[in-house]
Amino acid sequence: MVAKIFSAALKGLESQVIEVEVACNKGLRSFNIVGLGDKAITESKERVSQAIKSIKLSPPQAQAKRILVNLAPADLKKEGSLYDLAIALGYLLASKQVRFNPQGKLILGELALDGSLKPIKGVLSFSFLAQKEGFGEIILPKENAKEAGLVNLQERQRKIKIIGAENLAEVISYLEGRKEIPESKVDPQQLKRNFQKFEIDFGWIKGQLHTKRGLEIAAAGAHNVLLQGPPGTGKTLLAKAIVSILPQPSFEEILELTKIYSIAGLLPKERPFLNQRPFRAPHHTSSEVSLIGGGSPPKPGEITLAHRGILFLDEFPEFHRDVLESLRQPIEEGEIAIQRAKYILTFPAKFTLIAASNPCPCGYFGDPEKECTCTASQIASYRRKLSGPLIDRIDIFCWVPSLKYSDLISPDKEGQSQEIRKKVGRAREIQRERFKKEGILTNSEMKIPQIKKYCQIDSPSQNILKKYVDKGLLSARGYHRVLKVARTIADLEGREKILTDDISEALSYRLREG
Ligand SMILES: Nc1ncnc2c1ncn2[C@@H]1O[C@H](COP(=O)(O)OP(=O)(O)O)[C@@H](O)[C@H]1O
Ligand SMILES: [Mg+2]
After folding, report:
1. Ligand nearest to the backbone CA of 203
2. Integer angstrom CA distances of residue 128 from 119, 138, 142
3. Would you place residue 513 in the very low, low, confident or very high pLDDT band (cuts 50, 70, 90)?
4. What is the DSSP letter of 10?
5. Helix (H) or strand (E) holding 68
6. Using DSSP, how many helices (H) and how many strands (E) does the chain show?
């Protein structure tokens, strides 16, 4: 007899249905799994047998039969141990030790030797698949059930039954109708709770008003930023502080972030979702794969882990040139394509970049107080790195100068981040409304036709920009970036019209255009 159980495999952030077919035939005693499995699947044979034994049923090795497990489609490379439960149930069904109808059920989970179910990665992606492919229920390890249940919080979507089980015996009792398992549900209020404790408040950072405002604009419109200045002026501090003013992610964004962090195995232990924007600060020695993703099995890289949040490249001229170069395409496209043997998978990568650097190797080039000790060629080679692929993508340039003593002793402004965060949140809301039909969320994502439509300016503003362009102070690329930033500045005021002041302020963040 042949039994067929439905399971699933990850393909980037998405997933695909896998049919686990188990045939139990007369013949020489054997137990094989085919379908391009990796080592984990071979090991799965051992776990499945042991788990079945532990619940006093007869394992494959005890049958005088030929047992063949086929994971289809065969051409998709399957990784991991999430098929244990499906294989065990398929075998028990095929060998007539249990009876149930596997139709409409998506079954996933790793088995421990004692038959208990161990949590798996990528669950939210699987429950989306179940919903899309018309499955009525999903059966999986209890620890994963809340995460899977997020799918049911979507409005106007078909609900699926989420069954989280502790072990193989419980799954069998449930499937044979001998035991009820209550459905797992997530309290939607929980998603709205802010769990984040911010390390740094904007109000603690002294002086640097121009940069703080630059970061406020960046947070509001998701604009990329470059911070430049001598060492010890607070560049790293300012970049880290930006998380405290980022707006809460929307429900759709929470689902996206949760999917990514689930696949990476990085969901917080205490809750099954991610409801805060990520801040990723990879070290300058990071490899290309760790930054952009890949490997086998393909894992999201830092740029995907920074999706809808911040990617901070501190001391960015220290990064390897090839690594910086590899960021060009994902920044442009908002996603990264990873080539596999038979298919291409994509991970999203819509992040806000914050890059920080000293102006030269010693750090004091252009400093009014301290003398720069670099040679002309050192400065030139440093500059070349700065004018590389990333600089083209920067909307906001901030010069972060040395602090004055009077700034340093000024009192803290407690709670400043919270105030700014509210403003930023409102500005994002305006953008969300504006771009409802455009398929984007923020001003920084506008392409030229959208800039033309949404960034209309009056003639005095046009005259200012004309002067800058004619004097060679602003390139065509810079021109469009100024318009986008000015749009965000107006949005922060809740104002439809872009004023000359907005243009002037946006220009103040372009002056170091290299
Ligand atoms: N503007 C500032 N306000 C308050 N503290 C500051 C400021 N700038 C620097 N500091 C202090 O100096 C330390 C070093 O700053 P850092 O951000 O690492 O400088 P940079 O990255 O520019 O070299 C910070 O951790 C903080 O304690
Ligand atoms: Mg620093």
Report:
1. 1
2. 18, 10, 18
3. very low
4. E
5. strand 66-72
6. 20, 18
Per-residue three-class SS string for 286-339: CCHHHHHEECCCCEECHHHHCCCCEEEECCHHHCCHHHHHHCHHHHHHCEEEEE
Measured in angstroms, how far is the CA atom of residue 257 from the centroid of ligand 2? 28
Cα(363)–Cα(228) distance, integer angstroms:
9
Neighbours of 291 (CB within 10 A): 26
Going by DSSP bridges, is the β-strand pair 352-357/310-313 parallel, antiparallel, or unpaired?
Answer: parallel
Q: How many CB atoms lie within 10 A of CB 99?
A: 11
Which candidate, 178, 25, 167, places its Cα nearest to that of 88? 167
Reply yes or no on whether the pLDDT at 40 is more than 50: yes
What is the bridge-based pairing of β-strands 310-313 and 299-300?
unpaired
Nearest residue (by CA) to ligand 1, atom 20, is 232
Report strand pairing: 335-339 vs 344-348: antiparallel
Distance 54 CA to ligand 1 centre (A): 59
Residue nearest to atom 5 of ligand 1 (CA): 205
Beta pairing class for 110-111 and 66-72: unpaired
The letter for the amino acid at 479 is Y
Structure tokens at 403: 């602090």
What is the Cα 210 distance to its own chain's centre?
Answer: 30
Q: State the distance from the centre of ligand 2 to the C-alpha of 95, rounded, in angstroms.
A: 64
Q: How far is the CA of 314 from the centre of ligand 2 (A)?
A: 6
What amino acid is encoded at 9 in this protein? A
The CA R_g of the chain, rounded to the nearest whole Å, is: 28
| Mean pLDDT score across all residues of the chain | 90
Q: Whose CA is nearest to atom 10 of ligand 1?
A: 234
User: What whole-number distance in Å separates Cα of residue 169 and Cα of residue 268?
Assistant: 29
Atom of ligand 1 nearest to the CA of 206: 3
Counting from 1 in the atom list of ligand 1, the atom nearest the Cα of 237 is: 17
Residue list, ligand 1 pocket, CB within 6 Å: 205-208, 231-237, 403
The better pLDDT of the pair 295, 496 is held by 496
Distance 362 CA to ligand 2 centre (A): 13
Amino acid at 218: A
Res. 270: pLDDT tops 80: no
